[in-house]
Amino acid sequence: MPPSLQTVVRRMNLRPVAGTGRPGVLDAAVRWVAVSELADPTPYLEGGELLLTTGMRMEGDLTGYVARLVRRGVAGLGFGVGVSHEEVPPALASAAESAGLPLLEVPRETPFIAVGKAVSELLAAEQYEEISRAFAAQGRLTRAALRPEGMHAVIDRLAREVGGWAALLEESGEVRHATRGAGLDVVTTELARRRGQPVETAGGGAQAGAARAGGGERMPASLALSGPGEHVVVQPLGGGARPRGFFAVGAPHAFTPVTHTVINAAGSLLTLAMEQGRTQLAAERRLRTAVLELLLAGEGERARAVLGALGGRLPEPPLIVLAAGAEALEALEARAFAALLSTGPSAAETRSTDPRTVVAIVAESVAEEVALGAEAPVGVSQPCDGAGLRNALDQAGRALEAARGRDGAAAGAGDARRVVRFAELAGQGLLGLLDPAAAQAFSAAVLAPLAAYGSRADLVESLRAYLDSNGHWDAAAQRLGVHRHTLRYRMRRVAELLGRDLDDPGTRAELWLALEAAGRGATPASPRGSSR
């Protein structure tokens, strides 16, 4: 803060002459010293100066002169005696007293330049003190950043430095950590408005943010919010264009330039900690992927040794393998050993080779809880030991495909329907293990000649009865309610249309799969109930 007029008076032995009777008038800040003999120096002043003059052109009524200085906001007027005037002109003293302008007598032996140098030194000392305070605060913030609490310790220290509160927020606006007394309602509301999200109204309802049309306003480098008795600054965190979080600082008083410097330093430390955390997390994820590939390659001992050296461990058998999309990575890795399995030679024979597939290995006792906690489609394998992980991964991958297929229908039915267990698919027979779309395409292709033969359904139904009766003519004919010779005729026609030998076991298996898929999908290839 600049030196006060009182400080300059005492340091330079200036004598108050007029306009200093009001309480606090000498507490005015002196931002600079100006020297002028002009009748109207105000065009060359900014306000806050101590104006020095010898009164070379002063004569007559000086009320207008003083009034102009007061309107300009000068801190005071210093009159040098012994040059043009042996004493301060009474007219000037009277005008200054009436206008409340501090009028000071500058002794003949005190050069104006000495006054200017003194104020300059005081300003420099104040700036040095401010910089020193800022450096000291930055040092305390840096030491806080090195503590085990990391970012939380920085927030706690920042609150003490500004004499108020501080808070750390997620990118979504959710509060991660806040000090006591944090007034975050205005912060979260403003962040939601700028993202174009609904914000709570005073009546408890919700209204769309003003920025919804444009997808939200771009977050500025710093956001200042002021209200009765509270001043708040919000800054984004992260090194990219998209904020990865925010921190907010509030106090009952306005922030000084030094305080803003401290806040900016805290923002740099928090951003650095966040980016370092992301880098460390990425390295940990790559390591878990390498461990998973070792496990799938049958190198269980090496995988456990690598993980153990870093303080991690795998659960004991029986094990369950979970497969999910990349959106579930954070949720799964917080509860279990989880890794993102990328396409590569080590996973070439699995069905979970999609780079966006997350694989988690959990103990059987907690598999259900972990799968539900993913809040995303999850495939669950059957129990296995370490040697059966590759097969379990294939099971989980197949179950994940089924879970993704039912995800839309499960959106309003809770997370339980988004979890599919391989045992459920196995209980549905061979078709449960096939991709539904692929099975339907296969069925349509195989049965197309029968569908193209006309609208009669007796050939399809006769084929179904024949296969269900395991090729026994009498049982199939009785089931259809026709003579067995009629059935033989129909099967010869089916064989001709399909170009297949119905006595071949492979042909029978394919036709049975096609009929089952057609029945489940109600494809046009199985027009039950129609007649020619």
Helical fraction equals 40-55%
- Rg of Cα set: 42 Å
Q: Can you list the strand order of the major beta sheet?
A: 1-5-4-3-2
Low-pLDDT runs of 5+ residues are 199-216, 343-354, 409-414, 522-532
How many extended strands?
17
Q: How many angstroms does the end-to-end distance come to? A: 101 Å
Shape call: elongated
Proportion of beta-strand residues: 15-25%
Instruction: Tell me the major beta sheet.
Output: 5 strands, mixed
Q: What is the overall pLDDT average?
A: 81
**SS field, number of helical segments:** 17
Structural category is: alpha+beta
Question: What do these coordinates show?
Answer:
By secondary structure, this protein is α+β, with helices and mostly antiparallel strands. Helix content is 45%, strand content 15%. It has helices at residues 5-12, 63-72, 90-99, 112-145, 151-162, 185-194, 257-296, 300-309, 329-333, 367-373, 389-410, 422-427, 436-452, 458-468, 473-480, 484-498, 505-521; strands at 15-18, 32-35, 49-53, 76-80, 103-106, 165-170, 175-178, 199-200, 206-207, 223-227, 230-237, 245-251, 319-325, 337-341, 357-363, 378-380, 419-421. The strands form four sheets. It has a five-stranded mixed β-sheet. It has a five-stranded antiparallel β-sheet with strand order 7-6-12-11-10. A five-stranded mixed β-sheet has the order 14-15-13-16-17. Helix 4 (112-145) runs antiparallel to helix 5. The chain is elongated.
